Amino acid sequence: MKIVTFACNWCSYAGADLAGVSRLKYPEDVRIVRVMCSGMVNPAWILRAFRQGADGVVITGCHPGDCHYMVGNYYAKKRYLLLKELMKFVGFEDERLKLLWASASEGKKFAEEMDSFKKLIEQLGEQKQLRWTP
Amino acid sequence: MNEIEKIKDALKSSNAEKIVAFVRKESEPREVLKVLSPNEVDKISFSPLSLNNPAKLLMQINGKVAVVAKGCDSMAIRQLIKEGKLKRENLFIVGISCKGVVDYRKLAKFVNLSEVNDVELNGNDLVLKLKNGEKRIPFLEVVDENCLYCGHPTPVIYDVLIGEPREGKRDFSDIEQFERLSREERWNYWISQFERCIRCHACRSVCPLCYCEECMVDPSNLAVSPMSTPEEKASYPRILGKTVNARDNTIYHLLRVLHHAGRCVGCGECERACPMELPLRMLERKLEKVVVEIFGYDLNEDIPFFSKLDIVGD
Ligand code: SF4
Ligand code: SF4
Ligand code: SF4
Ligand code: FES
After folding, report:
1. Is B197 close to ligand 3, i.e. is its CB under 6 Å away?
2. Which ipTM did the prediction report?
3. What is the model's pTM?
4. Rounded-to-integer distance, Cα B279 and Cα B274, Å
5. Hey, is B58 helix, strand or coil?
6. How large is the average pLDDT for residues B75-95?
7. Is A36's Cβ below 8 Å from some Cβ in B?
8. Residue of chain A minimizing CA distance to B309
9. What is the pLDDT of residue B227?
10. Is A116 domain-assigned?
11. Using the beta-carbon criterion (under 8 Å), do B251 and A83 form an inter-chain contact?
12. pLDDT per residue over B145-203, tens digit each?
């Protein structure tokens, strides 16, 4: 399983870091891409990740009101909802896309959420709908 | 005075340097858009076969311009003003309260188009003046399906209004019906549609809102060599190439409509331009439904959808 996680530099990446420092285990399938803010996650990257074979994609960011750039996560949420609704409409397994607010102190939450997300993805199995096959 | 005379009069009353209006195409019964100078105003024409949206043309013209706009055309003009692409003071808008336009492909199934001299709407019938005689077709059988869901048949912005104001509607029943299908059915439907797309990008080229100088699908003009630094490469991430297969087409279409969230004015130009007749408006309308129902946004608001920073859900 491959789970691509876009983690914002200021909260969620630090949260993931904290999970590591605290020696909390979370699935090794989670590959983190550090971005400056959840607001810079282009929906195109998400679709591209699915095309390149990701089985799940998570966007993580600071809690609403806490974004380092004030409103980046508001944009993230908007884009996430629009993309998810569209995916659902065309019959893509939209459960494979997740949005998570995790602060720098929520290492435990980060690990737990990743655990349960992985379980969900395992139930769904391999993502085949958008995966690029030559 | 008939509609065309009224439009001419209105155009004459403006002091614009250019006119963007419909002109009858030679050897076909439909109109095409032309940029005219004020002394050519007598060339203009208008009918239920004046299909295209002039908003995109306006962005290429400097100075004061007069334009003939149906309901959806005026929506596009207003949206472009909202987005800073057009200036209201440079425009003189002759708005036409629209009764709907004809789907040219449907019409072609009823008659040999080259035999049609004139087309006009009379009550519920489309009257075709043929070389020999007349033919009446119920308008509903040839109307552009898009017009059946029209939210703004009366122009939302104009200097002169021609025709009686008409009520628009908000009807997502077709979308709701599709949503009731199973996930598999929905996927199979869309994949079979996207599979047919040849990625000519005509749907993008005609859309008044697709004015990006460089679209996500345009080839990056940054040559990547073994010497390129990571910074250089990162400054030009490639999102989607021009590869044509059902999956990449799916991605293209999802992204294209996403770029229109809260912006699509429903003119139907994308569908009209598509050589493969993909149901593009259905995706746009789904997104409109989301924007209206989940975000509570109204296209008539002065603030663009993406500038509105409200957070919905938990
Ligand atoms: S997406 Fe289609 S219907 Fe919407 S504004 Fe563009 S061309 Fe018109
Ligand atoms: S598809 Fe998107 S990127 Fe391309 S021109 Fe339209 S809005 Fe711009
Ligand atoms: S106009 Fe039709 S065939 Fe061309 S890219 Fe758009 S959907 Fe595909
Ligand atoms: S900086 Fe964390 S979401 Fe913007």
Report:
1. yes
2. 0.96
3. 0.93
4. 9
5. helix
6. 97
7. no
8. A74
9. 83
10. yes
11. no
12. 999 999 999 999 999 999 999 999 999 999 999 999 999 999 999 999 999 999 999 99
CA–CA dist A11, A6 (Å, integer):
12
Stretches in chain A below the pLDDT threshold 70 = none
Regarding beta strands B160-162 and A97-101, do their DSSP bridges make them parallel or antiparallel, or are they unpaired? Answer: unpaired
Is the model's pLDDT at B252 over the cut of 90? yes
Task: Give the minimum alpha-carbon distance from B284 to chain A in angstroms, rounded to a whole number.
Answer: 10
Q: Supply the range of the domain harboring residue A100.
A: 3-124
Is there a domain that residue A115 lies in? yes
Taking the centre of ligand 3 as the mean of its atom positions, its distance from the CA of residue B202, in whole angstroms, is: 6
Q: Is the CB of B113 under 6 A from ligand 2?
A: no
**Ligand 1 geometric centre to CA of B207 (Å):** 5
Q: Helices A107-124 and A12-21: crossing angle, nearest 10°?
A: 100
Domain definitions of chain B by residue range: 1-101+151-169, 171-314
Ligand 2 pocket, B212 CB below 6 A? yes
Ligand nearest to the CA of B207: 1
Is residue A131 in some structural domain? no
Q: Which of B276, B283, B284 most suits a substitution to test ligand 3, by most atoms within 8 Å of the C-beta? A: B276
DSSP H or E stretch at residue B82: helix B71-82
Answer yes or no: are the C-beta atoms of A10 and A37 closer than 8 Å: yes
Q: What is the percent of chain B with per-residue pLDDT over 90, rounded to a whole number?
A: 83
Residue A134 belongs to some domain of the structure: no
User: What is the predicted pLDDT for the residue at B214?
Assistant: 81
Give the count of domains, chain A: 1
